[in-house]
Amino acid sequence: MVMRQMRENTKWIMLVTALAFVALMVFEWGMDASGRSAGGVGAIGRVNGTPVYYEEYLAVYRNLYDQVQMSQEEAITSQQVTELEDAAFDEVVNAILVRQELERRGIRVTDDEVRQAAQFNPPPQLAQNPGFLTEGRFDFQKYQDFLANQADEAFLLQLETYYRDIIPRSKLVRQISSGIYLPDNLLWQQWRDLNETAEVRYIPLDPAQRIADSEIEVTDAQVRSYWNDHQDDFEQPQRAQVNATVISKALTAADSASARARAASIVDRLAEGEDFDDLALLESADEVSAGRGGDLGVFLRGQMIPVFDTAAFEAPIGEITGPVESPVGIHVIRVDERWAQDSVQAAHILVSWARSDSAEIALLTMADSLETLGETMPLSEAAGALGLPTQEAELNTEFAVLAGAGSVGEGVDWIFEEAAVGDVSPVFETAQAFYMLEVISTAEAGVLPLEDARGTIEQILRFEQKMARSLETGAQLVQQIRAGEPLPNVAAEAGLEVRSAGPFSRDSFVPGLGRYNKAIGAAFGLDVGEVSDVIETDTNAYIVELLSRTPADSTEWMAQRESQRQQVRAQIEQTRIQAWLESLRSVARIVDRRDEVLQPVDESAPLPTGFGF
After folding, report:
1. Are 197-234+451-550 and 238-249+358-444 the same fold in CATH?
2. CA–CA separation, 117 and 548 (whole Å)
3. What is the DSSP secondary structure assignment for residue 431, as one 8-state letter?
């Protein structure tokens, strides 16, 4: 049993060899089908003279593609392909930089270090393997007995390769993150900020609402002066005004009903005696598990989609559970084995949320027809011929979002790299929709003209004057309260509202008060019963009275202190590693030749698909 499970984990160990950087420096090799061909050319770039080989890049791309595809129901869009290509190249560059740094620092691994690690630091997936668990806990004796009696030389070689990769990277992480010191007072302050609570009542002065615009005068000279003094605030990216039409990919009610009916039919067929494995092969949309009779293997609690995870850990062993609906589809589940509520072996048949064949054909036909019409006529006419609405929108290089289509970076690239005013785009695709653009006008990056900025500036200046008046009024109210008049009475006389809030911590978002501002801070700087000065925030002004404060429990803090220390250290390490990688990239000589070397492939060729867990 243990040998079989270990052999099944061999592929995992080989994968981890490529991935490992101590959980803090993981270069996730991923992606699928770059959409471009290398044409037999090996190097697609260089990093400090080291070639970036197409095969290495493609391996990363394929895994990342698979990861994204498994996380969403729809096929990968052309825009996502572009993003994945860039992410793959960046990850390969990072991996090369790390290898170069290991060489520069002379970081090596000895045979003894490999032996020690193999004996006492098993790879995470093996440490979670049910074959090495005793009463739900990892049993080192079982694991070491297995290694002592291991005769599979290929497996041992793969295990050795894993450690020869991960140990030097572990040493590098320790060097990068050395010197992290976390004194108890820092940990206590963090704990206190999260766990000390306060309750307050307060008077919001609401300057924007309580003082009418008509009471405030803003002169042209003030507007011009503000615009001259705040040029940076009015910097604008390259932008375009476009006409757009969107074809939504949203499922219809009929499509959802069809999926539910199909899942219910599968449950009925199983109840009538049909074989689960055979039905999974015939009916499951999860192409990865379908060929194994729906088998998902062994997985830990929390690894699956939450609703699926809950069902798998609560379902009776050996019985059919479902239909269970999740964001990716409807699952019919069979739990084969469960260990101490920590891990499960299960199988499923997936009915995906998908358009019917007729709806899919109609959608694609509509998109193709729109593109054909757009080649010979303005967008409004092309859309009108198909009964599609149009919308005007402004898109820019920093915020490329179109209502109904989501992020439209591919369309924005077309506007600013290929198009001219009046051009109609091809049909682009996002996860939510197909869309087409027509360029109405474009504007280069620069400072927003004064007349275009005038309305915003006038609003800012009016609010500044309203706030100044409110601070004066508030100061008078504070004097009355401190002279002995109750806060509710003072508020009522001024026609103001008294609100209550809490208990809340320094880290909380407090409705009416906000988060991480002076009003929240004041609540923890007052004595019980004390009233604050007038507190100004970005959007309001307040008078705050502390009603009660509950200190953080130092005993609870002591009990979790070391766990907290490890978490904070891990966060700091991650930040350091990211900054270190960025510094390496900033001085590296990185040459990206993908546009020269890789040629577009036939767009009609199907991309790899499949859902896997």
Report:
1. yes
2. 54
3. S
β 433-443/401-402 pair status: unpaired
pLDDT in tens, 336-376: 988 866 788 999 999 988 887 788 888 999 999 999 999 99
**Residue/partner pairs of 97-105 with CB below 8 Å, 24 or more apart:** 97/47, 97/48, 97/581, 97/584, 97/585, 97/588, 98/21, 98/25, 98/27, 98/169, 98/172, 99/50, 100/47, 100/48, 100/50, 101/172, 101/584, 102/168, 102/169, 102/172, 105/172, 105/175
pLDDT at residue number 534: 96
How would CATH label the architecture of 238-249+358-444?
Answer: Roll (3.10)
Residue ranges covered by each domain of the chain: 2-178+578-600, 197-234+451-550, 238-249+358-444, 253-354
* 253-354: in CATH 3.40.50.10490: no
The pTM of the full predicted model, rounded to 2 decimals, is: 0.60
Residue 357 three-state SS: helix
Q: What's the pLDDT tens digit per position in 170-192?
A: 898 888 888 888 999 999 999 99
Taking the domain 197-234+451-550, which CATH number applies? 3.10.50
The Cα–Cα gap between 85 and 431 comes to 17
